[in-house]
Amino acid sequence: MDDGNEKAYRWEGDYEKTWEALKEDESGSLQASIEHELDKAKKRKLHKRKETVRLGMMRHIYIVLDMSSAMLDQDLKPNRALVSVKMIEKFLENFFDQNPIGQLGFILTRSKKSEVLSEMSGTSHHHLQAFAKLSGEIVKDAGKHCLGEPSLQNSLDLAEKTLKHMPSHTSREVIFISGSLTTCDPSPIQLTIESMKKHKIRCSVIALSAEVRVLKHLSECTGGSFGVILDESHFLDMLLDHIPPPAGMVTESSLIKMGFPPHVQSQNSGKISLSMTSKELTTGGYYCPQCQAKHAELPVQCVVCSLTLVSAPHLARSYHHLFPLPSFSEVKMFESGALQQDCFSCLQKLKQHAESVTYICSRCKAHFCIDCNLFIHETLHCCPGCINARCELNISKNDD
Ligand SMILES: [Zn+2]
Ligand SMILES: [Zn+2]
Ligand SMILES: [Zn+2]
Protein backbone atom coordinates (compact mmCIF):
# COMPACT_ATOMS: atom_id res chain seq x y z
CA MET A 1 0.00 0.00 0.00
CA ASP A 2 1.36 3.38 -0.94
CA ASP A 3 -1.14 5.21 1.24
CA GLY A 4 0.91 5.05 4.40
CA ASN A 5 2.87 8.23 3.75
CA GLU A 6 1.89 11.29 5.73
CA LYS A 7 1.60 13.48 2.66
CA ALA A 8 -1.43 11.52 1.52
CA TYR A 9 -3.35 12.90 4.45
CA ARG A 10 -2.57 16.57 4.01
CA TRP A 11 -6.24 17.54 4.26
CA GLU A 12 -5.98 16.61 7.90
CA GLY A 13 -2.91 18.75 8.46
CA ASP A 14 -4.73 21.94 7.58
CA TYR A 15 -7.33 21.37 10.21
CA GLU A 16 -5.75 21.03 13.59
CA LYS A 17 -7.78 20.75 16.72
CA THR A 18 -7.99 24.49 17.10
CA TRP A 19 -9.80 24.33 20.44
CA GLU A 20 -6.72 22.70 21.95
CA ALA A 21 -4.52 25.55 20.78
CA LEU A 22 -6.56 28.19 22.59
CA LYS A 23 -4.82 29.53 25.69
CA GLU A 24 -5.94 32.08 28.25
CA ASP A 25 -3.83 35.17 28.74
CA GLU A 26 -2.97 36.70 32.16
CA SER A 27 -6.40 38.27 32.52
CA GLY A 28 -8.09 34.97 31.73
CA SER A 29 -9.36 36.12 28.34
CA LEU A 30 -9.34 33.95 25.26
CA GLN A 31 -9.64 36.91 22.89
CA ALA A 32 -5.96 37.17 21.89
CA SER A 33 -5.71 33.45 21.39
CA ILE A 34 -8.83 33.33 19.23
CA GLU A 35 -7.61 36.24 17.11
CA HIS A 36 -4.31 34.44 16.64
CA GLU A 37 -6.10 31.33 15.37
CA LEU A 38 -8.29 33.40 13.04
CA ASP A 39 -5.24 35.14 11.62
CA LYS A 40 -3.62 31.77 11.06
CA ALA A 41 -6.65 30.61 9.07
CA LYS A 42 -6.57 33.77 6.95
CA LYS A 43 -2.87 33.35 6.27
CA ARG A 44 -3.47 29.78 5.20
CA LYS A 45 -6.02 31.05 2.69
CA LEU A 46 -3.53 33.58 1.33
CA HIS A 47 -0.79 31.00 0.92
CA LYS A 48 -3.10 28.69 -0.97
CA ARG A 49 -3.24 31.09 -3.89
CA LYS A 50 -1.08 30.05 -6.77
CA GLU A 51 1.04 32.63 -8.52
CA THR A 52 2.27 33.35 -12.02
CA VAL A 53 0.71 30.33 -13.60
CA ARG A 54 -1.40 30.43 -16.68
CA LEU A 55 -4.91 29.64 -15.69
CA GLY A 56 -7.75 28.65 -17.92
CA MET A 57 -10.58 31.17 -18.04
CA MET A 58 -13.09 29.04 -19.85
CA ARG A 59 -14.06 26.10 -17.75
CA HIS A 60 -16.50 23.27 -18.16
CA ILE A 61 -17.26 21.35 -15.00
CA TYR A 62 -19.62 18.52 -14.24
CA ILE A 63 -20.36 18.02 -10.58
CA VAL A 64 -21.44 14.47 -9.84
CA LEU A 65 -23.46 14.12 -6.68
CA ASP A 66 -23.81 10.74 -5.05
CA MET A 67 -27.47 10.09 -4.22
CA SER A 68 -27.06 6.55 -3.01
CA SER A 69 -28.42 5.27 0.28
CA ALA A 70 -25.10 6.23 1.91
CA MET A 71 -26.23 9.85 1.62
CA LEU A 72 -28.93 9.20 4.23
CA ASP A 73 -26.21 8.95 6.86
CA GLN A 74 -26.67 11.54 9.56
CA ASP A 75 -23.05 12.31 10.37
CA LEU A 76 -23.78 15.63 8.70
CA LYS A 77 -26.99 17.15 10.04
CA PRO A 78 -29.78 16.55 9.06
CA ASN A 79 -28.33 14.18 6.48
CA ARG A 80 -25.48 14.08 3.95
CA ALA A 81 -27.75 14.62 0.96
CA LEU A 82 -29.27 17.85 2.24
CA VAL A 83 -25.96 19.23 3.44
CA SER A 84 -24.41 18.48 0.04
CA VAL A 85 -27.21 20.33 -1.73
CA LYS A 86 -26.74 23.30 0.60
CA MET A 87 -22.97 23.32 -0.08
CA ILE A 88 -23.51 23.16 -3.83
CA GLU A 89 -25.88 26.13 -3.65
CA LYS A 90 -23.16 28.12 -1.89
CA PHE A 91 -20.65 27.00 -4.48
CA LEU A 92 -22.95 28.15 -7.29
CA GLU A 93 -23.25 31.64 -5.80
CA ASN A 94 -19.49 32.04 -5.86
CA PHE A 95 -18.60 30.14 -8.99
CA PHE A 96 -20.24 32.33 -11.59
CA ASP A 97 -19.02 35.45 -9.85
CA GLN A 98 -15.41 34.35 -10.27
CA ASN A 99 -15.83 32.39 -13.53
CA PRO A 100 -18.36 34.37 -15.55
CA ILE A 101 -17.60 32.49 -18.76
CA GLY A 102 -17.37 29.11 -17.08
CA GLN A 103 -20.07 26.49 -17.38
CA LEU A 104 -21.42 24.00 -14.89
CA GLY A 105 -23.55 20.89 -15.18
CA PHE A 106 -24.83 18.46 -12.56
CA ILE A 107 -25.17 14.69 -12.56
CA LEU A 108 -26.82 12.50 -9.93
CA THR A 109 -25.95 8.88 -9.39
CA ARG A 110 -28.14 6.34 -7.56
CA SER A 111 -29.44 2.80 -7.98
CA LYS A 112 -26.40 1.94 -10.16
CA LYS A 113 -27.48 4.53 -12.71
CA SER A 114 -26.63 8.13 -13.43
CA GLU A 115 -28.77 10.94 -14.75
CA VAL A 116 -28.26 14.59 -15.63
CA LEU A 117 -29.90 16.76 -12.99
CA SER A 118 -29.25 19.96 -14.88
CA GLU A 119 -27.55 20.49 -18.22
CA MET A 120 -24.27 22.32 -18.75
CA SER A 121 -25.06 26.02 -18.52
CA GLY A 122 -23.35 29.33 -17.95
CA THR A 123 -25.87 30.78 -15.55
CA SER A 124 -26.87 29.63 -12.12
CA HIS A 125 -30.64 29.96 -12.06
CA HIS A 126 -31.48 26.67 -13.84
CA HIS A 127 -29.17 24.87 -11.48
CA LEU A 128 -30.59 26.61 -8.43
CA GLN A 129 -34.12 25.70 -9.51
CA ALA A 130 -33.11 22.07 -9.96
CA PHE A 131 -31.49 21.97 -6.55
CA ALA A 132 -34.41 23.69 -4.83
CA LYS A 133 -36.66 20.97 -6.26
CA LEU A 134 -34.22 18.24 -5.23
CA SER A 135 -33.87 19.48 -1.67
CA GLY A 136 -37.68 19.70 -1.42
CA GLU A 137 -37.91 16.07 -2.47
CA ILE A 138 -35.23 15.00 0.00
CA VAL A 139 -36.95 16.82 2.86
CA LYS A 140 -40.27 15.16 1.99
CA ASP A 141 -38.96 11.62 1.74
CA ALA A 142 -35.22 11.14 1.77
CA GLY A 143 -35.47 7.34 1.59
CA LYS A 144 -37.26 7.52 -1.75
CA HIS A 145 -34.61 9.69 -3.39
CA CYS A 146 -31.37 8.37 -1.93
CA LEU A 147 -31.32 4.85 -3.28
CA GLY A 148 -28.99 1.88 -3.74
CA GLU A 149 -25.42 2.18 -4.86
CA PRO A 150 -23.75 4.91 -6.92
CA SER A 151 -22.04 4.12 -10.21
CA LEU A 152 -18.74 5.88 -10.73
CA GLN A 153 -18.36 4.53 -14.24
CA ASN A 154 -21.82 5.49 -15.48
CA SER A 155 -21.38 9.01 -14.09
CA LEU A 156 -17.97 9.48 -15.65
CA ASP A 157 -19.20 8.15 -18.99
CA LEU A 158 -22.11 10.55 -18.92
CA ALA A 159 -19.87 13.53 -18.12
CA GLU A 160 -17.33 12.46 -20.72
CA LYS A 161 -19.93 12.37 -23.47
CA THR A 162 -20.34 16.13 -23.21
CA LEU A 163 -16.91 17.16 -21.99
CA LYS A 164 -14.88 15.48 -24.72
CA HIS A 165 -16.49 17.73 -27.30
CA MET A 166 -15.47 20.91 -25.50
CA PRO A 167 -12.80 22.86 -27.39
CA SER A 168 -9.21 22.26 -26.33
CA HIS A 169 -8.61 25.77 -25.03
CA THR A 170 -11.16 25.21 -22.28
CA SER A 171 -10.73 23.13 -19.16
CA ARG A 172 -12.67 19.91 -18.69
CA GLU A 173 -13.35 18.97 -15.12
CA VAL A 174 -15.40 16.59 -13.04
CA ILE A 175 -15.94 16.98 -9.30
CA PHE A 176 -17.32 13.86 -7.68
CA ILE A 177 -18.99 14.25 -4.30
CA SER A 178 -19.08 10.74 -2.94
CA GLY A 179 -20.73 9.46 0.22
CA SER A 180 -20.64 5.77 -0.55
CA LEU A 181 -17.72 3.43 0.03
CA THR A 182 -18.67 1.29 -2.94
CA THR A 183 -19.45 1.74 -6.62
CA CYS A 184 -21.30 -0.50 -9.02
CA ASP A 185 -19.72 -0.47 -12.46
CA PRO A 186 -20.73 -2.49 -15.52
CA SER A 187 -17.17 -2.92 -16.90
CA PRO A 188 -13.55 -2.49 -15.71
CA ILE A 189 -13.20 1.02 -14.29
CA GLN A 190 -9.56 1.29 -15.37
CA LEU A 191 -10.70 1.68 -19.00
CA THR A 192 -12.88 4.63 -18.02
CA ILE A 193 -10.05 6.23 -16.06
CA GLU A 194 -7.75 5.83 -19.07
CA SER A 195 -10.36 7.40 -21.28
CA MET A 196 -10.76 10.39 -18.90
CA LYS A 197 -6.99 10.80 -18.97
CA LYS A 198 -6.94 10.63 -22.75
CA HIS A 199 -9.56 13.35 -23.05
CA LYS A 200 -7.73 15.51 -20.46
CA ILE A 201 -10.67 15.52 -18.08
CA ARG A 202 -9.50 16.41 -14.61
CA CYS A 203 -11.41 14.46 -11.98
CA SER A 204 -11.45 15.58 -8.37
CA VAL A 205 -13.13 13.78 -5.52
CA ILE A 206 -14.62 15.01 -2.27
CA ALA A 207 -15.30 11.97 -0.14
CA LEU A 208 -17.81 12.33 2.69
CA SER A 209 -17.02 9.13 4.56
CA ALA A 210 -13.52 7.76 4.03
CA GLU A 211 -10.76 7.34 1.51
CA VAL A 212 -11.77 4.98 -1.27
CA ARG A 213 -8.92 3.48 -3.23
CA VAL A 214 -10.50 3.69 -6.67
CA LEU A 215 -11.56 7.32 -6.20
CA LYS A 216 -8.12 8.35 -5.08
CA HIS A 217 -6.59 6.50 -8.00
CA LEU A 218 -8.96 8.30 -10.37
CA SER A 219 -7.94 11.74 -9.07
CA GLU A 220 -4.24 10.86 -9.17
CA CYS A 221 -4.40 9.58 -12.74
CA THR A 222 -6.27 12.58 -14.07
CA GLY A 223 -4.41 15.31 -12.14
CA GLY A 224 -7.33 16.16 -9.87
CA SER A 225 -7.47 16.62 -6.13
CA PHE A 226 -8.71 14.17 -3.53
CA GLY A 227 -9.88 14.84 -0.01
CA VAL A 228 -12.01 13.46 2.77
CA ILE A 229 -14.12 15.95 4.66
CA LEU A 230 -13.76 16.39 8.40
CA ASP A 231 -16.88 18.44 9.02
CA GLU A 232 -19.33 20.76 7.31
CA SER A 233 -17.06 23.80 7.09
CA HIS A 234 -14.23 21.68 5.76
CA PHE A 235 -16.63 20.32 3.12
CA LEU A 236 -17.43 23.86 2.02
CA ASP A 237 -13.76 24.84 1.96
CA MET A 238 -12.93 21.86 -0.22
CA LEU A 239 -15.70 22.67 -2.64
CA LEU A 240 -14.78 26.36 -2.77
CA ASP A 241 -11.18 25.38 -3.54
CA HIS A 242 -12.49 24.52 -7.01
CA ILE A 243 -13.57 28.09 -7.70
CA PRO A 244 -10.19 29.48 -8.80
CA PRO A 245 -9.28 27.75 -12.07
CA PRO A 246 -6.71 24.94 -11.68
CA ALA A 247 -3.25 25.78 -12.97
CA GLY A 248 -1.69 24.18 -16.01
CA MET A 249 -4.89 22.72 -17.40
CA VAL A 250 -4.86 24.42 -20.73
CA THR A 251 -1.80 23.78 -22.84
CA GLU A 252 -2.99 25.16 -26.13
CA SER A 253 -3.42 28.85 -26.78
CA SER A 254 -5.68 29.80 -29.57
CA LEU A 255 -7.61 32.75 -30.81
CA ILE A 256 -11.20 32.39 -29.84
CA LYS A 257 -13.96 33.91 -31.86
CA MET A 258 -16.56 35.53 -29.66
CA GLY A 259 -19.74 37.42 -30.25
CA PHE A 260 -21.01 40.30 -28.12
CA PRO A 261 -24.72 40.50 -28.86
CA PRO A 262 -26.62 43.45 -27.40
CA HIS A 263 -29.90 42.72 -25.65
CA VAL A 264 -32.86 43.55 -27.87
CA GLN A 265 -35.78 44.80 -25.81
CA SER A 266 -39.23 43.41 -26.37
CA GLN A 267 -40.80 46.68 -27.51
CA ASN A 268 -38.14 47.09 -30.21
CA SER A 269 -38.27 43.62 -31.72
CA GLY A 270 -42.05 43.43 -31.47
CA LYS A 271 -42.40 39.89 -32.73
CA ILE A 272 -42.51 36.83 -30.55
CA SER A 273 -39.88 34.27 -31.49
CA LEU A 274 -38.36 31.08 -30.20
CA SER A 275 -35.36 31.30 -27.93
CA MET A 276 -32.86 28.60 -28.89
CA THR A 277 -31.55 27.80 -25.42
CA SER A 278 -34.66 27.86 -23.25
CA LYS A 279 -36.98 26.66 -26.08
CA GLU A 280 -39.53 29.24 -25.03
CA LEU A 281 -41.37 31.89 -26.96
CA THR A 282 -40.18 35.30 -25.87
CA THR A 283 -40.15 38.80 -27.26
CA GLY A 284 -36.68 40.00 -26.28
CA GLY A 285 -33.28 38.34 -26.21
CA TYR A 286 -29.73 38.23 -27.50
CA TYR A 287 -29.30 37.68 -31.25
CA CYS A 288 -26.16 35.86 -32.38
CA PRO A 289 -24.27 38.32 -34.62
CA GLN A 290 -23.28 35.47 -36.94
CA CYS A 291 -26.48 33.51 -37.51
CA GLN A 292 -29.18 35.62 -35.80
CA ALA A 293 -30.32 32.78 -33.57
CA LYS A 294 -31.94 34.12 -30.45
CA HIS A 295 -30.76 33.24 -26.95
CA ALA A 296 -32.40 34.09 -23.68
CA GLU A 297 -29.27 34.54 -21.63
CA LEU A 298 -25.53 35.10 -21.75
CA PRO A 299 -22.94 33.65 -21.68
CA VAL A 300 -23.86 30.80 -23.96
CA GLN A 301 -22.50 28.90 -26.91
CA CYS A 302 -24.70 29.54 -29.93
CA VAL A 303 -26.63 26.32 -30.58
CA VAL A 304 -26.72 26.98 -34.31
CA CYS A 305 -23.22 28.14 -35.23
CA SER A 306 -21.46 27.40 -31.92
CA LEU A 307 -20.04 30.88 -31.58
CA THR A 308 -19.31 31.80 -27.96
CA LEU A 309 -21.60 34.64 -26.98
CA VAL A 310 -20.63 36.75 -24.01
CA SER A 311 -21.00 40.26 -22.73
CA ALA A 312 -17.99 42.52 -22.30
CA PRO A 313 -18.23 42.58 -18.48
CA HIS A 314 -18.08 38.77 -18.44
CA LEU A 315 -14.79 38.87 -20.26
CA ALA A 316 -13.40 41.67 -18.14
CA ARG A 317 -14.26 39.81 -14.97
CA SER A 318 -12.43 36.69 -16.17
CA TYR A 319 -9.33 38.59 -17.17
CA HIS A 320 -7.77 38.58 -13.71
CA HIS A 321 -7.30 34.81 -13.85
CA LEU A 322 -4.76 35.31 -16.63
CA PHE A 323 -2.84 38.08 -14.87
CA PRO A 324 -3.30 37.50 -11.17
CA LEU A 325 -2.36 40.25 -8.76
CA PRO A 326 1.02 39.38 -7.21
CA SER A 327 0.99 38.49 -3.51
CA PHE A 328 1.77 41.27 -1.07
CA SER A 329 4.92 40.72 0.94
CA GLU A 330 4.42 39.99 4.60
CA VAL A 331 6.59 42.23 6.79
CA LYS A 332 6.89 42.30 10.59
CA MET A 333 5.67 45.66 11.88
CA PHE A 334 8.87 46.41 13.78
CA GLU A 335 11.05 45.66 10.77
CA SER A 336 8.95 47.70 8.38
CA GLY A 337 9.47 50.84 10.48
CA ALA A 338 5.82 51.55 9.92
CA LEU A 339 4.57 51.51 13.46
CA GLN A 340 2.07 54.28 12.97
CA GLN A 341 0.71 53.01 9.67
CA ASP A 342 -2.96 52.82 8.80
CA CYS A 343 -4.21 50.25 6.33
CA PHE A 344 -4.28 51.95 2.94
CA SER A 345 -7.60 50.39 2.10
CA CYS A 346 -9.83 50.45 5.20
CA LEU A 347 -7.91 53.21 7.03
CA GLN A 348 -7.91 51.22 10.27
CA LYS A 349 -4.85 51.33 12.49
CA LEU A 350 -2.77 48.23 11.82
CA LYS A 351 -2.63 46.06 14.92
CA GLN A 352 0.21 46.93 17.28
CA HIS A 353 1.70 43.98 19.03
CA ALA A 354 4.92 42.03 18.93
CA GLU A 355 3.89 39.53 16.27
CA SER A 356 1.77 41.78 14.12
CA VAL A 357 2.56 42.01 10.46
CA THR A 358 1.67 44.30 7.60
CA TYR A 359 1.25 43.43 3.94
CA ILE A 360 3.01 45.60 1.39
CA CYS A 361 2.28 45.78 -2.32
CA SER A 362 5.57 45.46 -4.18
CA ARG A 363 4.53 47.96 -6.84
CA CYS A 364 2.97 50.89 -4.94
CA LYS A 365 4.43 50.12 -1.47
CA ALA A 366 1.07 50.69 0.21
CA HIS A 367 0.40 48.87 3.49
CA PHE A 368 -2.65 46.66 3.99
CA CYS A 369 -4.17 44.75 6.87
CA ILE A 370 -4.78 41.00 6.52
CA ASP A 371 -8.53 41.37 5.93
CA CYS A 372 -8.05 43.86 3.11
CA ASN A 373 -5.28 41.70 1.67
CA LEU A 374 -7.68 38.75 1.49
CA PHE A 375 -10.46 40.88 0.03
CA ILE A 376 -8.15 42.39 -2.59
CA HIS A 377 -6.82 39.02 -3.72
CA GLU A 378 -10.06 37.05 -3.57
CA THR A 379 -12.66 39.53 -4.73
CA LEU A 380 -11.22 42.76 -6.06
CA HIS A 381 -8.24 41.36 -8.01
CA CYS A 382 -6.55 44.75 -8.33
CA CYS A 383 -4.54 46.80 -5.86
CA PRO A 384 -6.26 50.04 -4.74
CA GLY A 385 -2.83 51.57 -4.05
CA CYS A 386 -1.63 50.97 -7.61
CA ILE A 387 -4.85 52.35 -9.11
CA ASN A 388 -4.59 55.41 -6.92
CA ALA A 389 -0.96 55.93 -7.95
CA ARG A 390 -1.94 55.63 -11.61
CA CYS A 391 -4.75 58.18 -11.17
CA GLU A 392 -2.40 60.65 -9.50
CA LEU A 393 0.11 60.17 -12.29
CA ASN A 394 -2.54 60.98 -14.88
CA ILE A 395 -3.66 64.06 -12.98
CA SER A 396 -0.13 65.42 -12.70
CA LYS A 397 0.46 64.69 -16.41
CA ASN A 398 -2.65 66.65 -17.29
CA ASP A 399 -1.50 69.56 -15.07
CA ASP A 400 1.80 69.71 -16.98
ZN1 LIG B 1 -24.91 31.74 -34.06
ZN1 LIG C 1 -7.53 47.15 5.89
ZN1 LIG D 1 -0.20 48.27 -5.30
Structure explained in plain terms:
The chain has 400 residues and is of the alpha/beta class. It folds into 3 domains: 55-240, Rossmann fold, CATH 3.40.50; 260-320, no CATH class; 325-399, Herpes Virus-1, CATH 3.30.40. The protein contains 15 helices and 17 strands. Strands 3-2-1-4-5-6 form a 6-stranded mixed beta sheet, with helices on both faces. A 3-stranded mixed beta sheet has the order 7-14-13, with no helix packed on it. The longest helix is centred in the first third of the chain and has 19 residues, at 80-98. It binds zinc ion (ZN) (3 copies). The site of one zinc ion has 7 residues, from α15.
CATH superfamily of the largest domain: von Willebrand factor, type A domain
Number of domains: 3
- Which blocks of ≥5 consecutive residues have pLDDT under 50? 1-8
Fold-level CATH name of the largest domain: Rossmann fold
The CATH class of the largest domain turns out to be Alpha Beta
* Number of E-type strands: 17
Classify the helix fraction into a percent range.
Answer: 25-40%
End-to-end CA span: 72 Å
Structural class: alpha/beta
Q: Ions, cofactors, ligands: which are bound?
A: zinc ion
Q: Based on the structure, what is the oligomeric state of the protein chains?
A: single chain
Estimated radius of gyration = 24 Å
Number of helices: 15
Inertia-based shape: globular
Q: Mind summarizing the main beta sheet?
A: 6 strands, mixed
On the 0 to 100 scale, the average pLDDT is 83
CATH hierarchy: architecture of the largest domain: 3-Layer(aba) Sandwich
Strand residue content: 15-25%
* Largest sheet: spatial strand order: 3-2-1-4-5-6
